[in-house]
Design brief:
Elements: H1 15-25, H2 34-48, H3 53-76, H4 81-84, H5 111-114, H6 127-139, H7 148-153, H8 160-179, H9 186-204
Helix pairs in contact: 1-3, 2-3, 2-6, 6-9, 8-9
């Protein structure tokens, strides 16, 4: 069964359809499977990337309700607030921090893949959709669908650790693809670098002190 779409095919017609759809979906959220919540979340994020301002506000509050349900389920699974939102010190005396990317590739089997963040010519999402997904991954609660240690790597919503995890994941994939020296991968590389620029300008500049991952030439 296809995930429910807030507003359905009539969403483009105006905010009233989206409002009615949200009103019908909201009471059902506590009873939904996590996979169903992901589908509803993703459809709302895709709509928010192109919606009218009034609809953006409605969709934003609806997305936050879904993320609140994820947070509640994560806590009930034994992830206390301190454990789930652990935020380590990201600064050293030199002002730089060496970051080790874990073995899991988050763009193919981890959190970003689960939330359907994709780049490249064949399966890539448009920039507006990718940025909307990255916005919510940075600022919202995440679905409790991975093991405890992995979820702890993402830190708390809006934290330096969360941004660091996002930035290093995208930068590592871009560097890896560049080392392959395959021009068919150029579109994916450009998307990752464009998304890094987006995160850097919107969230990093003037806010966090860790070293931003640098691009590397081929």
């Amino acid at each position: 069964m296809a995930p429910d779409r807030p507003g359905g095919e009539k969403a483009k017609a105006g905010g009233s359809d989206i409002a009615r759809r949200i009103a019908s979906l909201t009471p059902t959220l506590p009873d939904r499977k996590v996979s169903d919540l992901r589908g509803i979340w993703l459809n709302a994020v895709r709509l928010i990337a192109k919606a009218d301002p009034d609809d953006v506000l409605l969709l934003g509050r609806f997305i936050e309700r879904i993320e609140a349900e994820w947070e509640k389920r994560g806590a009930s699974a034994g992830l206390s607030a301190d454990e789930y939102f652990q935020w380590p010190n990201t600064e050293t005396s030199s002002g730089r921090r060496v970051i080790t990317v874990g073995e899991r590739d988050d763009t193919t089997s981890g959190m970003l893949a689960y939330l359907e963040y994709h780049v490249g010519r064949e399966k890539g999402e448009p920039p507006g959709v990718r940025h909307a997904i990255l916005d919510r991954v940075f600022s919202g609660s995440l679905p409790p669908v991975f093991d405890r240690d992995y979820l702890a790597q993402w830190g708390s919503p809006g934290s330096a650790q969360r941004l660091q995890k996002l930035a290093e994941t995208l930068a590592a994939r871009a560097r890896s693809f560049k080392r392959r020296r395959n021009t068919s991968l150029d579109d994916a590389i450009r998307d990752w670098e464009a998304d890094l620029d987006f995160l850097h300008e919107k969230y990093y500049v003037g806010k966090f002190g860790f070293a931003w991952p640098m691009r590397r030439t081929r």
